[in-house]
Amino acid sequence: MIVRTWRGWTRPDVAASYASYVRETGLRSYASTPGNLASAILTREDGGRTEFLVISFWESLASIEAFAGSDVSRAVFYPEDDAYLIDRDRHVNHYEADEVSDLTDRLRGRS
C-alpha cells in the first residue's frame, strides 16, 4: 500500500471553506479512481495560518498515476486552489505502508 501526502496553508478565516472544497475536488477525485483505498484531511493552526495535510491511501503507484498522471511526485491542483492557498507544497510524498489498522471499526467498537 502507498500513502500519499500533501501540505498547503490557508488563512484561518477560509479554512472551513477550503476543507469543503478539498472534499468536493481532491477527495472526490481520489474516491473515483480505481485503487484508492481511503483519504483524510488533517488541519492545525500554524503561526496565524491553517495547515492542511491531505493523506490518501492507494493500492499501488500505478493507481496513483491514474489519478495524478505520469509524474506522481507533482501535486494536483484544482481551479479554486489559488483563491484559498497562501502557501503550498508543489510536490507530494509517497510512503510504503506495511499495515494500516481499521480505525472505523475501532471507533465503532468492533476491534
The whole-number mean of residue pLDDT values reads: 93
Structural class: alpha+beta
Unreliable segments of 5+ consecutive residues: none
Give me the count of strands: 5
The global form is globular
**Separation of the first and last Cα atoms:** 21 Å
| Total of domains | 1
CATH architecture: 2-Layer Sandwich
Helix proportion of residues, in percent? Answer: 25-40%
Number of helices: 4
Order of helices and strands: EHEEHHEEH
Which CATH C-level class is it? Alpha Beta
Instruction: Work out the radius of gyration.
Output: 15 Å
Tell me the β content. Answer: 25-35%
CATH topology assignment: Alpha-Beta Plaits
- Note the main sheet: 5 strands, antiparallel
Structure in a nutshell:
It is built from 4 helices and 5 strands, in the order E-H-E-E-H-H-E-E-H.
